[in-house]
Amino acid sequence: MNPTGLALGVALVLGVFAAVLGAATRKHLRARAVGAVTALCGAAGTIAGISAMCGTRYYAAFPALLPLSGVTITVDSTSGLFLAVTGAVAFVSAVYGVGYARADANGRLPQAVFPLFVITMMLVVSAGNVGALLVCWELMALCSLVLVLTEHHRRPEVARAGRWYAVMTHLGFVAILAGLLVFTAAADDDTFPALRVAAHHLSPTTASVVFVATLLGFGSKAGVVPLHVWLPRAHPEAPSHVSALMSAAMVNLGVYGIVRVGFDLLGGGQRWWWLLTLALGGISAVYGILHAAMSTDLKRLLGYSTTENMGLVLIGLGAAGLVADDPVVAGLALAAALLHMVNHAAFKTVLFLAAGSVQRGAGSRDLDALGGLSGPMPFTTAAFGLGALAASALPPGTAFVSEWLLLQALIHARPSAGAAAVVMMPIAVAAVALTAGLAVATFVKAFGVGFLGRPRSAGAAAARESPASMTAALGIAVAVCAVLAVLPTILLSQLGSLASGLLRTGSPAAMDGIVVRLVGVSGALSPLMLAVVSVGAALGLVAVVRLVLTRQARRAARLWDCGAGPLSARMEYTATSFAEPLQRVFDDVVQPETDVDVTHARESAYLVEAIEFRNRVLDRIERWLYTPLLRAVSVWAAAARRLATGSVHRYLGYGFYTLCGLLILLAVTR
Amino acid sequence: MSALGIVGGVVQPLAVVAGSPVLVGMMRQVRARLEGRAGPGIAQPWRDLRKLFGKEPIAPRGTGVVFRAAPYALVATTLVVSFVAPLATVDSPLDPVADLFAVVALLTAGTVALALAGLDTGTAFGGMGASREMTIVALVEPTLLVAVFALSVPVGSTNLAAIVSSTLRDPARAISPASLLAAVALVIVIVAETGRLPVDNPSTHLELTMVHEAMVLEYAGPDLALVELASAMRLGVFLALLANLFVPWGIATTAGPFAVLGGVLALAVKVVVLGLALAVGEVFLAKLRLFRVPELLAGSFLLALLAVAASFFLA
Question: Where are the domains of chain A?
C-alpha cells in the first residue's frame, strides 16, 4: 500500500470512528470528539489527495464488497485534486463545528452523519468503477440530506428546503444512472479503463446521450441553472459548517463528474457538447450573481454566488472542450476552471463559516437586520471582509487570479477553432465581465450592509464574538485564501499538468517563481508583486501623511445629521435599498414583486395611517419552469389516484394486464 | 525590469500626483470661462489641498477602520496604476503587474474601498452614495473588461506595454473598427467612472443627485484632501490610459533624458487635450437622471461587445 492508499485508508477509518463517536459519546463530549476526529480525517484526505497529485496513484479492488460489480478504488491525479479540496474543507469545517455544533447541531444523528458525509464525498472521487461511484454518490446525497434537515423541528422552511433537495438530487441521480448505464452497456465491465476503451467505438448518438445525461445529473449537483433551485434553499437552511461543506466541497463533485466523464472517459467528444456546457455556464454565472445581488438573506446570497462560480467553472470547461484542437488554449482554460474551483472552495468556506458565526452571534442572517458587527465581532468581520474581497475578483483577492486566467484563455481562442467558438467567445467574455461587475456590487452589499455601519436590530446590537475554535477555523481558511491569492503558482503547476494529462497535451502555464507565465501564448501576471506593491504603496502613503503632512491627533466629531438630532439605524440604507437601483436596472430580467398598501385614516383620505411595503424577488426560472411542472405532476397524480380504489381484485387485474401487455409487446418486437 | 521601466516608475507617479490637480484646475477654469465666470485659476485645487492637509483630522463617531483606511486605499491603488502602466514610458518597472485586467481591477478596488467607507458611516447619504456608485460600477466594469478584451484580441496579450508598442509598430490598428468602437465605449465608461457629467456632477452638493459627493460627505481635513487628490489622479490616469491605448505616439521608448522628458510632455499634452474636450463637453450637457444612466452604460456595453465581435471576425 503506497502513501496515497495509506492516507486514504486512514481517512476512511477515522471517518467511521468519528461517526461511531458521534452516535455513542455523551452530549457534552460529542461536539469536541466528532470535530477533532473528523478534522484528522479531513487532514488525512488532504494528504492522500496531495500525494496522488504528486504522482503516487493508488489502485485497489474489492470484488466482494458490492454485488454485480464489486468496488474498485482508483486515486489518480484528477481524484487527488478533488480529494485534497474535500479534505481541506472538511478539516476547517470540522474544527469550526467543535464550537458551532455544540450549540446548534449537537444531536446524535447530525453528529454521526457529518463524518460519514465527509468520507462518502472522498469515496465518490476515489471510486474506480461505475457501481461504486453510483453507490457512493447516493450515500453522499442521503448524508447531506440528513444534515440539511438538522434544524427541521425548529423552522418549517428547513423541511421545505429538504424536500426540494431530496427531489432534485434524486432526479439528478436518475440522469447520472441512466447516462452511465448506457455507457457501461457498451463496455466490457464497469471499470473506468474499460469505459475509456469503449468510448473509442461508441456511436456518436450514444456518446451524446451519455454526455448530456451526465451533464444534467452532475450539473444539478453543481447548482447549474436551470437545475439550481434546490441550492439557494438547501445551502442556507443547513447548519453553517455543513453549508460550507456542501457549497465548497460537494458542488465540486458535480464538476468532477463532468471532467471525469467528458474529458477522461469520453475523451473530449463533439463540439456541441461543450457549446452546451459553455452556454449553461454563462447563464448560471449571470443568473446566479444577479439573484445574489438582490438577496437579503446572507446565506441565500452565498448560495446564489455558488451557482455563479460553478457557472464560471463550466465556462472554463466548455471553452476547454470547444477549442480542444488548440492544446495550449484548451489546457489553459481547463487549468483556469480547476483553479477557480479550488479558489471558490477556499473563499466560500470562509464566507459560509463567517455567516454561521454571524447567525450565532447576532441571531439573524437577514442583512436588513444586521450591521455594526465590526466592533463586537472583529475576527468574523475581518474574515468576511477578506472572503468578500476574494469572491469579488478584485486584486489582491483569490478569484482575481483564476478569472484572469479564464479571460486569458478566452482571449487566446483563435478563430481557427471554428465559427461557433468565434461567436461564443465574445458572449462568454461578456458573461464573465457582467458577473465580475455584479459580484463587486453583491459583496460590497454583503460586507458593507451586513457588517459596517450601525446595528439595525437588537440582536445585532448585542452581538458577541464566536468561541476560539470557530475563529481559529476562520483564521485557517482565510490563511489558505491569502496563500492562494498571492501564490497561485504553488498550485497552478500541478493543475497545469493535470489539465494536460486530461487533454493529453503539454502544460499550459510555467511557474517562474512568483510570476504566472503562460506557455505558448503571451501573458504574465504576478499576484504577489501586485499585492506587495499595493500594500507597500498604502503603507508608504500612511507614513507620508502621518509623519509629514498632518501630525495632529484625530478629534471625534458628530456625523452630519442635517442638524436634526441623532441619526437612528432606521435612517440607514438597508440591503434592500442598496440593491434597489440594480433591481430597477434588471427589472425585466428578475421581475420583482412589489406591493404597497396604504391605510388611510378614517377621518380623511388625505391622512395616511400606515404604509406597508413588500418587495420580493422570486426566482423566475422556478416560477416558469417548476411551478407548471409541479402542477402537472399533481394533476397526473390526482388522475392516477382514481386507479387506486382499494380493491385487491382490481390491483391483481392491473398486474395481469400489465404482464400480458408486456408479453405481447415482446412477442411483437422480437 | 529595464532602465526605462525604472525611470518610468519614478517619473510617472510624480507626474500624476503633481499634474492631476492642475488638470482639474484647468478643466474648471475652462468651464468657468465658457460659462462667463472669471474662475479661480488653474492652481486652485492645489491651494485647496494645501489648506485641507493643514486642518485637524476628524473621526466621525461610529465610523471604524474601514472609513479611516479607504482614502489611503483609494490613493494607493491609483498610485500603483500610475507606477506600472505605460503612461510616459513604454516599459513598466513591474511588467507582470502592468496587465490591463489588473489595472482595471485595481482602479475598481479603489472605488469599492470608498463605497465601503460610505456604508461604514451609517448615514443615509453614505448608503445612498455607495448604492448608486456600486450600481454604476456594476455596469461600468463589464464594459471596461469587454473593451479591454477587444483591444487585447488583435495583440494576443493583455499586457499594457505589449498593446501600446503594438499600436506604435502598426499605426493602422488605431483606426480599425474594433479599436474605434472600443474607444467610444471606453470614453463613456471613463466619464461614468470618474464621475463627470452627464453621469455625476462633480461640482454639485445637491443632496438628491449626488453620487460621489454623497459617499465622501463625512470626510474632512487631510482625509478629504486624500479623497480629492485621488479623484483628480484617477481622472488623470484614466485619460492617460485612454490616450495611450489609442494614440500612443510620443511615449518614451528609450531611457535617455530627452526621450523621457518628451514622453512626459506628450502625456501632458494628450491628457490636457482630452481633459479640455471633456470640460467643453460638460458645458453643453445636463446631468442625466440616475435611472437613465444605466441606459447610457448599456449602450456602451453593447459598443464594447460589438468591438469584441469585430476584433474576432475581422482578425
Answer: 270-539
